[in-house]
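BUG: 3D viewer hangs when loading the predicted structure for this chain

Environment: internal workstation, default settings.
Expected: structure renders.
Actual: progress bar stalls at 90%.

Input used:
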Amino acid sequence: MGEALFPTRWKYDKPPSIETFVETFRDDYACAEYLAKKRWPDGFVCPHCGSRKAWRLEARPWLFECAGKGNKPGCRKQTSMIAGTVMQGTHLPLRKWFLAAYLMATHSNSISALQLQPKLGVSYKTAWLVLHKLRRAMVNPERTPLSGTVDVDESAIPYRRKEDALERGGGSSTANQIWIAGAVETVGKHGVGRVRLARIADRSVESLVPFVEANTLPGTWLRTDHYAPYDKVPDRRLTKVNVKKSKLPAHILLKWPHVVFANLKRWALGTFHGFREKHLDAYLNEFVFRWNRRRGFQNTLDGMLGIGRRIGPVTYRGIVGDTTEWKKEHIDQILAMCHPNKQQIVSDLVGYYRAPKLDVLENIVWWMRRLREEDLDALLDFGWDIEGVPELADVPRSYDRQKPRRAVLAPRRPGEERLTSRRYSNPYANVPGILPPPGGGKALAIAAE
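C-alpha cells produced before the viewer hung:
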C-alpha cells in the first residue's frame, strides 16, 4: 500500500523516528510504565480490593502486587499489565513486542515475518506468531457499523493450487475463487471514510444480506450496482448504478470499492506474495485496520497491542488449528526434508509394521523400542545408522541457553527511589513522553476499528 492508499496518513499525530522509539522503550521498565499509565491514568487501583498502593516486582516490572490501603494489609493479589493483551504469557521481552507493533504500524506496506525476523533477532516461527497475534487484536467485535452513504460491492480473489495445471482464462473462471464483500463509507463528493471487508461463501442473498446488515446501520444509504440480492437488504435505502448501460467504466461509477479491492490484491502480492486461504480473514482484518487507522499513530499502536481491551488468550495452536490432516497430505514432502538415515528408518518401520508414515515419523522412538522388544533379530538385520536422527542419539544433548527465561532488566533509573527491598516510590516517573498523555479520570478504553 503506497501513499495513494493513505492520502492523509498520520494527519493528526506522526510516529517518532525509530531511534527515538527504541531509546524511549529501551527495556521492560519503560514498556511496563507505559502500560500502567494507560490502564491507570490517575495511579494504581487494585481491581480486587480498590487499594491504591502497590509493589512492583523487580524481575517482572509488568506485575503489580497489592500493598494494602492505609493500615490494612490489602489483598496481596497480583495484577499483570499484559493480561488480556496479545502479550499475555509471552517469554519475549516487552520491548520486542513494542518494536514489532511500531514496525508494523509505520510500514505503509505492512511487514512480513521474513522481514521482521532479523529486525527482532528471533526465529521465523516466532516472528510469524507475533504478527498473527497482533492481527488478532486489530478488530474490535463491538466496533460501530458504517453509516451515512456506503458503497457496497464484491470481488473475487483467484487462486491456484500447486497441482492445478496452468491454463489461460483463469481470471474469468468461476473455479478456485474466494469471494470478498466490501463496504466503504463515502464522505462528500470525493472523500472516503471507514471500510469493511469479509469473506463470503458466494454472491447469493444468503451471503450478501448478512454482510450488509452486520456492517451498516439501519437507515444507511447504500450505493450498489444492479445486482439483485441487494434488493433484499431491509431497513436501508438503496441507490442502484447501472454499470452495463453507463458509458463510464465501473471503477469510475463505484470508485472506492474498486480502489479498496485493487489495493488489497496489490498489497497481498507485493508484501506477502499471496495469502494462504486458511489465514485470509486475518489479513483482511489487518487491511481494514490499517485503512481505518491511517490518520493516527497512537491509536494504531495501542490497538495492535490490545491496550484498553480484553483479548482472549492467543496461542500458536489456536491460530494454526489442527495440522494433522495437512501433515498426512504432505508426509512425503516432510520426509524429504529429514536426514537420509531417518528416512531409511521410517521406511523400514512402515514396511515392517504396515503403519502410517506420519505415526512412525512422530513416534519413531516408540516404534524402535517396540521392534527391539518384539523382534531383536530384525532390528539388528536392518543395521540402521542413527547419525542425523536426534531422537535416537545415545549421548544426552545439552542445550546452552542463549538468553534467560525472562528479560534481563537494566539498573534502576533516576526517579525510581527505593523505599524497601521490594518497593519504589513513583511508578510513573519515567513514562515515555513521545505519545500524548491519556485523559484523566476513568481508565482508558480504546475501540479498535
